[in-house]
Specification:
Layout lengths: L2 H31 L1 H13 L1
């Protein structure tokens, strides 16, 4: 295979794993980072 074909395959893997990270890791990370704010907002809406 040529170097350009190898780079194309590597780029497709990069896009694929980037897509998986965007779908699964980013929402989990956001929930973990903002867990204190989310709990406060849930209690505030439950009081209404």
């Amino acid at each position: 295979m040529t170097g350009q074909a190898d780079m194309g395959i590597l780029l497709s893997f990069l896009f694929f794993f980037n897509m998986l990270g965007a779908m699964f890791l980013m929402p989990a990370l956001a929930r973990w980072l903002f867990r204190k704010n989310m709990a406060g907002s849930l209690q505030a809406t439950a009081a209404l």
